[in-house]
Amino acid sequence: MKYLAFILGMLPTLALAGTFSFAVVAPTQNTDGTAIPASGTGAIASHRIEYGSCTGTSFGTKAGEVTLTMPTVSGTSPNVAAGTYCVRAYAKTNQGSESVASNVAQAIVAPSTPNPPTLTVTTPTAFKMRQSVDGYQFVKIGTVPIGTTCDASHSVDGLNVVSRANVTLTSRFDTMPLVVFAKCG
User: CB of 87 within 8 A of CB of 49?
Assistant: First the structure.
């Protein structure tokens, strides 16, 4: 039974690494032009989204699928290999009829980004950065326990950012800066 013809559309998005994200534009008309009821007999109960390889601009081999039960019209499929996928969707009524495939859209799943290495404090000296005539300098302000976790993604001159909560000031005249640095490895 023909129910819908190319009325269902896909909104592909650049997904998070390893996750395929999608949204369905729910159709409002049957192929004969009659309205699809919002509830009751003949209403859409779910959408089935298929993704797979592309052959030119056509759908190739199916790699996976996700079913969305109404009223949900968007979702994700985690652990998908990086690459370009063709996507199509089907609407299924509460009577069990399924539409023909929607138009084919392309979506990109970005490659996974590696996690930064885990770094910990190797020298117990805590520093703050201070502006100087030549740019900046690091000034000792206290101590931080060896083994404290460092922010591996933020490093300046071999020092990494550490949590202020782990720092003990050595002088009662020092104030806790917004950013604290330590030697990490």
Answer: yes
- 169 falls within a domain: yes
> Parallel, antiparallel, or unpaired: how do β-strands 149-156 and 74-78 relate?
unpaired
Q: Final residue of a domain: which of 85, 109, 133? A: 109
Is this structure's pTM higher than 0.90?
A: no
Torsion angle, CA of 10/14/16/22, rounded to 10 degrees?
0
What integer best gives the mean pLDDT of the chain? 79
- CA–CA distance, 5 with 100 (Å, rounded to integer): 6
Q: Is the separation of the CB atoms in 20 and 82 below 8 Å?
A: no
In a domain, 94, yes or no: yes
Instruction: Name the strand (E) or helix (H) holding 14.
Output: none
What Cα–Cα distance (Å) separates residue 54 from each residue in 11, 70, 103, 185?
16, 28, 13, 45
